[in-house]
Amino acid sequence: MVSPFGRWSRPLQGALLLGGLGLAAGLVVASCSKMALTAPSGSSIALIISANTLSVNGSATVTAVVTEGSLAAGTGGNQTVTSGTGSPVQNGTVVTFTTTLGRVDPASAETHDGQAVVQLYGDGRSGTATVTAISGAASKTATVEIGAAAAAKVVVTANPQTVAAIGGTSTIVAQVQDQQGNGLLGVPISFSTTAGTLSATSVLSDNNGNATTVLTTNAAATVTASAGGGGSSGSALSATVNITVKSQTIMTISSPASVTVSVPTQLTIGLSSTAGATAVPIVNGVVVNFGDGTSFNLGQIGSASTTVSHLYAASGQLTASVSGTDQNGQATSSSTPIVVAPLSAVPVANPSTTALGGAIQFTVTVTTGALIDHYIWDFGDGNPPLSTPSNSQSYVYLSRGGHTVTITVVPVAGPSFTVSVPIVIT
After folding, report:
1. Can you give the pTM of this predicted structure?
2. For a pLDDT cut of 70, what percent of the chain falls above it?
């Protein structure tokens, strides 16, 4: 039989045969070196995650502990792990990781002393992440609540919690917390109010878990902050804060129906409160402006009704007002229109006709209540005028004929004016 190597020499034939065998062996070794080393049959995995909850963009360390044989229970991370009856798998054993939410980086890792370590990252979404570690036939899963799903509590505060009766603003801060009381980042918080307006009704929590909005209101309001999720229950979490309105002192001013020059006018200052019948004292200066260019500082008043007297010196239409600041620091004021009538007087001679040498009693009747400084009497017979504080004066004429008596009324406030009355001496 002819050799398949033809005329080649036997030594060459042997070399070729040995070379082929070596090449085949090399291919086998190369193929084996590329195969991933995984946990042998009967191995177990314990999965340890450094945090039970994450913010939507947070991260946690994921450690897979791989042992050959069984593993007893104990404590570690959010899983129960202790040394088991088995031994760590060979270094370089590959463990593959997956998650249903967020991402794992790297997706696989090799063990060292039986442990493979990767990182779990949130991707901005809320929910429950199920993390799985697989090596060979062994696998293990664990869950982590992310974002709103991790929320266990919402705490709401208001600053200030009381606003002025005329209206004001309050800063509302809602903090979303996990079970350990840590603030959670990136959780959507919804705000609503029973009164007033909010600067924002949907806000993402910041690094401290805080979401902020501003309430503007002039009425008592209840603000509610809600966060979706609620951990394993899946229900929404909410909390409320009440904003109250300060009681406000209502101040009024009123005057008599009739006001006359130089007649004392009693202006009445009234106090009441929006919180009830009890008046709130004015703690800052109360100033009454009489409307005629003059004013008076009453200082502090605390009674339900206070009066102040004033003499008007000129007739006309004007407006009186009062202003002050209540004990809550809130300004309050009131005004009233006033019509001031001129002062009037009516002279009377009794008798108006008499015989020479007879006495005549002159009387001037002015507006009721008017304050008069004095009267000047000119009897019209050439004698000098007579000034008296009284509105009544007796006089005897020494010549016959008709005379006109002129009386000048000089009030305490306002201009002087004259009135006259005729008489006859026979």
Report:
1. 0.54
2. 85
